[in-house]
Amino acid sequence: MSDVKTTDTMLEVRDIKRDYELPGGFMKPKKTLHAVKGVSFSLERGKTLAIVGESGCGKSTLARMITFIDEPTSGELIIDGKKMDTRPGHLTSEMRQKVQIIFQNPYGSLNPRQKIGDVLGEPLAINTDMSANDRRDRATEMLIKVGLGPEHYNRYPHMFSGGQRQRIAIARALMMNPKLLVLDEPVSALDLSVQAQVLNLLADLQDEFNLTYVFISHDLSVVRYIADEVMVMYFGEAVEYGTRDEVFSNPKHEYTQTLFKATPKADVESIRARIAAKKAASAA
Amino acid sequence: MSLLQIDNLTVEFETSTGWFRAVDGVSVSVDKAEVLAIVGESGSGKSVSMLAVMGLLPDTAKITADRMLFEGKDIQSLSGTERRKLIGKDIAMIFQEPIASLNPCFTVGFQIEEVLRIHLGLGKKERRARAIELFKQVGLPNPEERMNAFPHQMSGGQCQRVMIAIAIACNPKLLIADEPTTALDVTIQKQILDLIMDLQARTGMGLIMITHDMGVVAETADRVVVQYKGRKMEEADVLSLFENPKSNYTKALLAALPENATGDRLTTVSAFFDGNPEPAPSAGASAAGAFA
User: CA nearest A45: which of A81, A69, A72?
Assistant: First the structure.
């Protein structure tokens, strides 16, 4: 896997759109909701694209389209040089294996009645003809890789903390050796110290498997840390798209600037300025 | 005299494996017009200690404290009726989940008028006028129309504004905000924090901001208490906490912020200690070993 050039394109999205039909009622016409209004970008292998935006801006819909959960209304999706036929029934298991997703809430994305070993073995059981023993070995191997142990194989999800569950979700996504990983707010439900561990794990895995990440987040400090490229979405449109340094040093769109201004600053100079302003206000 | 003074507060819950100590010898005090931030990760007991002050913990909780004074009055010895007169009026609280903390069966107008009726005994017309005034004060658009809206017809940010309006309805002396912006978008978070800080500055009430977000601490607090696993790790004014953190845990928390990353990996908390930080000297080390 390491012999592939890092300059080739892993994911290309051309003018992708998704409309949802809202049902009408008596004397009420149907409405169309344009969730994603024509978004284009391309992403190199081994890089991370961060998609930022507030709730309802269409960032999760975009993630669902890239992972074939939702069918785009129009537009093209090119993964690993191949144009994807996203019509229902035209997806091959090979295509599905290349792209995997990790969801925001590690408490909701694991079946409470399924043991961890079965969680990890299931993708293999469905997509390959591996024997049960091989599946078990692969699952154990993956548990160790994400920082858990073989002793966790027979446990249930409720026995794990949030950070451990997110590690399990990452392990499950990696079972099929995907090339593209879509991470939908993977750390926003986690505590700060656990967040740091999971972000480090993601960085380690990216280096090891040359993974390409589409990282969806609303936390700009995380984005600044992890992303190579940044796209800002607002009401279904990509209002800003560029490398991390471009976007952070020189945000062009008004919404991006608002977003940056709204982010709390935790550096000493800002605190000093705030305290000085407060003193001045109370003296006046 | 401090507005609220708590000395050596301990909260325990009975579980199948014995008593679990959620808060372990924490002392906190807030002055008038002061903003105190209590910061910690989940399970640090930051919410539980404030719920104990409000008297909102279930009967299964065992609460002990050397002292728990509000304006010099002992809260612990109050009867249920007396306590209910105090909370919601002089001490008000805003919760994390704005939509879940409003009753879905009643209009927001009814819910704010309820507070005004019970605590202030206002008449029908006065209640409505005051409610609309409060809605205006917290920046809700079309306050008259909003009176008849149900919580599900409003966004999370708007519901939080309603919650704030209810909390400040009786001009409380102390406002406890428990993760008021965690469920909200960044831009809305900014608006809500600005609103709370503005109200605090204008009314001069004491404010306790419970949060896990160091950014929110940096933007709001005068003084900060850092908690970990039910114990107080550090207490300092906001500038010295960020500039020169004393406890290892605070150092670890600050290092784990992505914006403080040096090199291509983040420093994790376990790099500082293996889950067993030494408590700050003032945090009452007598109960050491409770979590071993």
Answer: A81
Gyration radius of chain A's alpha carbons: 21
| Closest by CA position to A267, among listed B238, B276, B155, B41 | B238
Instruction: Name the residue facing B238 among A196, A264, A271 (closest C-beta).
Output: A271
Grouping H, G, I as helix, E, B as strand and the rest as coil, residue A102 is strand
Residue in B with minimal Cα distance to A222:
B258
CB atoms within 10 A of CB A13: 23
Query: Are B224 and B236 contacting, i.e. CB atoms less than 8 angstroms apart?
Result: yes
Interface contact B99, partner A, CB < 8 A:
no
Block residue for tokens 């090979």? A94
> Which residues of A lie inside 8 Å of B (Cβ-Cβ)?
54-55, 162, 191-197, 199-200, 203, 218-222, 224-226, 258-259, 261-268, 270-272, 274-275, 278, 281-282
In this structure, what token pair is assigned to residue B141?
A: 């658009």
Pick from A180, A21, A200, A35: nearest CA to A100: A180
Q: Is the pLDDT of residue A2 over 50?
A: no
Element (H, E) at B23: strand B18-30
Q: Rounded distance, CA A279 to CA B2, Å?
A: 21
What is the spatial distance between Cα B65 and Cα B6, in angstroms, rounded to a whole number?
Answer: 7
CA B108 to chain A, closest CA, distance in angstroms equals 23
pLDDT tens readout for residues A118-170: 999 999 998 888 999 999 999 999 999 998 989 999 999 988 888 899 999 99
Tokens for A158, please give them.
């409720």
Domains with residue ranges and CATH for chain B:
1-80+213-281 (3.40.50.300)
**Degrees (nearest 5) of the Cα angle A202, A207, A208?**
95
Give me the residue from B190, B201, B216 closest to A281, CB to CB: B201
pTM for this entry: 0.82
Q: Which amino acid is at A20?
A: Y
Q: What CATH number does the domain located at A9-283 have? A: 3.40.50.300
What residues of chain B lie within 8 A of the CB of A218, using their CB? 185-186
* Contact partners, residue A131, CB within 8 Å, separation at least 6: none
Query: b/e map of B125-138 (b: 16 or more CB within 10 Å)?
Result: eebbebbbebbebb
Comparing A26-40, A241-255, B56-70, the range with the smallest average pLDDT is A26-40
B78 and B130 Cβ atoms separated by less than 8 Å: no
- The token pair that represents A176 in the structure block: 């099929």
Please, are residues B6 and B49 in contact by the beta-carbon 8 Å criterion?
yes
The predicted-structure confidence for B245-275, as pLDDT tens digits, reads as follows 999 889 888 888 888 777 678 777 665 555 4
d(CA B257, CA B65): 34
DSSP summary character for residue B206: E
* Residue pair B26/B227 in contact by the 8 Å Cβ criterion: yes
The predicted complex's ipTM stands at 0.76
Contact B256 A261 (CB under 8 A): no
A276 φ, ψ (degrees, to nearest 5)? -60, -45
Dihedral (CA of A77, A80, A85, A89) sign: negative
